[in-house]
Amino acid sequence: MSSQFAFLESEFGDVHAMAVWAEEHALSDPGPAVIHARKCLETGVKWAFRYDRALPRPYEDKLNAYLNEPAFKNLYAGRLFNVAKRVQRAGNRAVHESKPITQLEAVEVMSGLFQFCFWLAQTYGRTTKPPAGLRFDPKLLPDLGKAAATSLAERQELEARLEREAQEAALAKEHAAELAKSVEQLEAERAKLIAEVAAAKKAAAEIPAEAHDWSEDETRRYKIDALLREAGWPLADERDREFEVTGMPSESAIGYVDYVLWGDDGKPLAVVEAKKSMVSPAIGQQQAKLYADCLEQAYGQRPVIYYSNGYEHWLWDDVRYPPRSVQGFQTKDELDLAIQRRATAKSLAMLDIDDATVERHYQRRAIRAIAEHFEVDKQRKALLVMATGAGKTRTVIALVDLLMRANLVKRVLFLADRTALVNQAVGAFKAHLPNSAPVNLVTEGHEDGRVYVSTYQTMVGKIDEYRPDGTRRFGVGHFDLVVIDEAHRSVFRKYRGIFDYFDSFLVGLTATPKDEVDKNTYDLFDLETGVPTDAYSLDDAIGDGYLVPPRGVSVPLKFVRQGIRYDELTDEQKDEWDEFDWGVDEDGNPLDPPDRVEAAEVNKFLFNEDTVDKV
Fold first, then answer.
1. What proportion of the chain, given as a percentage, has pLDDT over 90?
2. What's the predicted TM-score (pTM) here?
3. I need a labelling partner for 473 at 20 to 30 A (CA). Which of 25, 52, 462, 589 fits?
């Protein structure tokens, strides 16, 4: 039986070989198959970044960095990114989680890998491209018979072996090329390939996207079902899908809800309306609302509304907020709490700010500004500009306290870029809000706190962690508030995936003056450039007497002022002096070490012209 990935063979040999192996073993040995699929994805992604000049190399050579590079992430309105992330996460699970990968999960991964490979060949194929209407068919997966289940250790060894083999193959290929051709020839060939790729990409853009669409049934089966299972929705009952409702504005008055997510009391917590992949999920918004109307009439409780095309997902709690884009679905407990908050949430304007935590006027003003932004303006992102030393951490702790007492926030994620700052934040929460039971995610593994403090890098790994039952440890709705300490451009470039992943309030803290904050930072918080939610500058703090102006301090260095004398050096330094290359004379003979070097010569040696020119 021929492979469904045969279209890769002529131009993408490495990708083809890994895809075929994963395809052949998806049913018989799902775990290793998924690991191969992830490696196949990584190989294909890196190929695209190497030869497509529209895809700039990311900040580090890791798959996660490539996928989160904005130029890739925004392809096809994020659809390709979502496909790739599902393959990546499944591969990570296969390597790091003890729970075996099921056949169904492997089939879902293969369907996602097929979509990525189709895009790769369709976009960059120079000689042959796959037929526009080509689709993945799970029924064509070969069944080689059930293999013995692989252990976690065996899967980890497989991942390590694949990584070694990939590195060795790359080195061997480079070495062979170097032996065969000159650098100029290699560069010329690469330039030619880049030009061919650009031409192939231009031709591919003329193919209508609808030519490789996913039906609503495929969208539900391979995309939405998987996300719901990750959130703890097994969809085991008949009433979970295609649930009949009455009261629709049609001749029969009957409708069928794609998904209903039920609470333990038998009342609906949410409806999910699925649309095929290449149409906007917004097409299903009104239909989902009508289903919610029918369920509310029948059960006395209005469900939260979701509508999705498998790639883009929207949540609409129309009792409290306008629709918003999300990365997945909330758990039963999270949806139940969201519905409870309709009745139990308190007005932020009516609650007092804790004077014991913040005493200064500008801190209280900042908290009120953020509270109004959230409550009155119905916004979910805020940016606070506050000078270093003015008490940003205390301000955010008092804000957390206010939001918790209003029953708007249950769990908080506080992110910093260094472990030392994480430790400081944990100490501050323990001192000023001890009932928040802060958890240091860098050093602790338990999940019974209300405030979690972490470095960005630690949280990147935590997002992809799963529990033994296959649900995510940190789902999209796990945190109600995410705080970004020192929000600046480099953080967003590396870790924006974290902020996009969680469906939460988002508060950024920065000491950068508001006129110097990068435009992209304001864009992330949906704010006008130069207009943060609140600002308190260094000049303000100095004028109010809370901070003192900076003073220059001269720190004289002996060597640059007085030069270096050999007889003043230590024995170890004298040895280095004697071994130093002092140059040669006119005849090419080495010069003897001098007895001293004058200050002017030291400064000349230390002066870096290239750096000064750039500054």
1. 54
2. 0.75
3. 25
